[in-house]
Amino acid sequence: MEASVRKGYKPIPPKAAAFLALFSLPFILVGTIIVRKALGVTASIGEMYAPRWVGAAGGLLFLVSGVFILALAVRSLVVSSPLSERTVGLGVGMFATIFLTLLASMCWGLALFGDPRGYSGGMTGAAIEGRILFGIFGTVLSLVALCGWLLLLLGLIGLIAGWIKKPGMTA
Fold first, then answer.
1. Is 93 domain-assigned?
2. For the purposes of burial, counting CB atoms within 10 Å of the CB of 86, is it exposed (0-12), middle (13-18) or buried (19 or more)?
3. Any alpha helices (H) in the chain, and if so which ranges?
């Protein structure tokens, strides 16, 4: 067992890794379809009330999720050793940060560039209400994503510079 792996941590069994690989395929397929339709590569699905890049960011949410799950499954099948806590922590942090960044960009895109015909419902039914709400959500998600990018950058620098020690090592 590696020194960088916490005691009692076991690798993903091959059957579970194969299931994870199969589980990721619908995410990758749906994400690819949404991105292609949003960018106009294939026939459009109808009227869009937002810029194409907003739809592409929505498709990338699915695509990035599927690729992340597939990469974990393939790594488990090929290497067959457990992931270290540092690798898992940075990987999950990177995934969450990319996910939040895409979600924030979607909210900002809808708030700033969305077609007023696409906003319905709410308390007043006015387009400005929808723009304000998407702007608030976009701001909150942007701040959280910015913190995630800073933590990820510090984690990578710490990993490269050796500031983050392997479990069980003494300073």
1. yes
2. middle
3. 14-38, 52-79, 85-113, 127-161
Residue 45 exposed, middle or buried by CB count within 10 Å (0-12, 13-18, 19+): exposed
- The confidence band for 121, taking pLDDT boundaries of 50, 70 and 90, is low
Domain end call among 34, 64, 81:
81
* Residue 1 falls inside a structural domain: no
| Spatial CB neighbours of 105, under 8 Å, sequence gap ≥ 6 | 54, 57, 138
Does residue 125 fall inside a structural domain?
A: yes
Contact 107, 141 (CB under 8 A): yes
Of residues 50 and 32, more confidently modeled: 32
The answer to whether residues 71 and 123 belong to one domain is no
Note down the domain range covering 54.
12-81
In this predicted model, what pLDDT tens digit does every residue of 126-166 receive, in sequence order?
A: 778 888 888 999 999 999 999 999 988 888 887 777 765 65
Q: What is the pLDDT of residue 133?
A: 87
- Of the residues 65, 81, 97, the one at which a domain ends: 81
Beta-carbon contacts of residue 26 (< 8 Å; ≥ 6 apart): 66
